[in-house]
Automatic annotation (TrEMBL):
Keywords: Signal. InterPro entries: Cupredoxin. Residues 1-21 form the signal peptide. This is Cytochrome C oxidase subunit II.
Amino acid sequence: MKKLLLSITLSLSALFLSACGADGAEKQTANVEETGVVHEVTIIGYAGKEVEDFRFEPEELAVKQGDKVRLTLESDDEIEHGLTIFGISKQLKQGETLEFIAEEPGEHIGQCSVFCGAGHAVMTFKLTVD
Ligand SMILES: [Cu+2]
């Protein structure tokens, strides 16, 4: 089960990495009308003894295109995490706040970007932009 989950996570990561290739920069500059809605969310990274315990909370966030997203990343322990959201090329370091306008519709998978232990690869986050 652990290997399957890890395999799925890695496959998803590879898929989204390849999907944000050559035209990624072009998508970043798309003009999107801002809605004025702000989603301010603190994401907590949890490490654990078992692979299954590793996670971000919340694990997903759904917004509308043009909404402002303000994400802060924290940890529940001494272990450092990071979050990279593929497809929209957003990186968040622990203790930092990242603010951006959600421009590109779709499901954008995020992945912990700092190796934090056995369950590092299963720490995913999904940003859905409708
Ligand atoms: Cu990690």
